[in-house]
Write a structure and sequence with these properties.
Elements lengths: L1 H19 L8 E5 L3 E6 L2 E4 L6 E9 L4 E11 L2 E4 L2 E2 L6 E5 L5 E2 L10 H11 L8 E7 L8 E7 L11 E9 L2 E10 L7 E8 L7 E6 L11 E7 L2 E7 L2
Antiparallel strand pairs: 1-2, 1-8, 2-3, 4-5, 4-8, 5-6, 6-7, 9-14, 10-11, 11-12, 12-13, 14-15, 15-16, 16-17
Length: 246
């Protein structure tokens, strides 16, 4: 009888771990943003999750607009929704849900919209944008690798400026580090559109002083729901794409 009882207990535990909450005990890190970004960090690499279990376990919930930790709660995935205490987490704000062995540090930053045309043209030239139209621009001047020297992130777009003389509309985010320019995201079309690429958050996930940059395809209101997201990190002294929803 005792032998059969042990077998039953083992079977129950197997079902619990394999089907009810497979994500809770595997030692990986998980990050969810909006409807599209369901990312897992495993063996030193980020990737997209192909499926989500119903019971996801306890997550830290961050306000991405300021990096504030606003809650620690169990998340559930049901009918395409991330649920916390019965509410859809996406209805609550511009949030990131994260759990893992490491903690996330959000780097505070401010946008500067006073970017002169000479500086804009210099950036366009160095990242290979041949469009002659001067776009709208903003920049974030910040130390991204903790070396005491600031880098500059540029957000350029003419995609919302309808003009019959403009032949190509585009949006891009790029970085200037000393004399090195790196184009992170770029999209163009022959008609105006409103989903510009903007920095959504700057975080240190690995706690090594090198910051990851999350870029969102903003839409008009920067709504987290349907936005596409990209994460970039430093490899070989250069920012490269680590994972994206596209």
């Amino acid at each position: 009888m005792k032998k059969y009882l042990i077998i039953v207990i083992i079977a129950i535990l197997y079902i619990l771990f394999a089907f009810v909450a497979p994500d809770l005990f595997d030692g990986n890190s998980y990050m969810f943003i909006g409807k599209k970004a369901h990312w897992v960090y495993k063996k030193g690499e980020w990737s997209n999750m192909t499926s989500l279990s119903k019971n996801l376990g306890k997550f830290n919930i961050y306000d991405m607009s300021n990096g504030e930790l606003i809650d620690k709660t169990n998340l559930y995935y049901e009918n395409g929704k991330l649920l916390s205490k019965g509410d859809n987490i996406l209805d609550k704000g511009f949030y990131m849900s994260f759990k893992g062995k490491s903690s996330i540090e959000f780097l505070s930053y401010k946008r500067n919209y006073d970017v002169n045309s000479k500086e804009i043209l210099d950036v366009m030239k160095n990242v290979g944008i041949k469009n002659t139209d001067i776009p709208l621009a903003s920049k974030i001047v910040i130390d991204l690798d903790d070396d005491g020297t600031d880098e500059t992130i540029y957000e350029l777009y003419n995609s919302t400026n309808y003009d019959e003389n403009i032949k190509t509309y585009y949006t891009t985010v790029c970085i200037k580090d000393g004399n090195q320019y790196t184009k992170l995201t770029y999209k163009e079309d022959n008609y105006t559109f409103y989903n510009n690429y903007l920095v959504a958050a700057i975080i240190d996930f690995t706690n090594d002083g090198n910051y990851e940059i999350i870029v969102g395809e903003s839409g008009i209101s920067f709504d987290a729901r349907d936005t596409s997201y990209f994460m970039f990190g430093i490899k070989d002294n250069k920012y490269v794409k680590l994972v994206s929803t596209e």
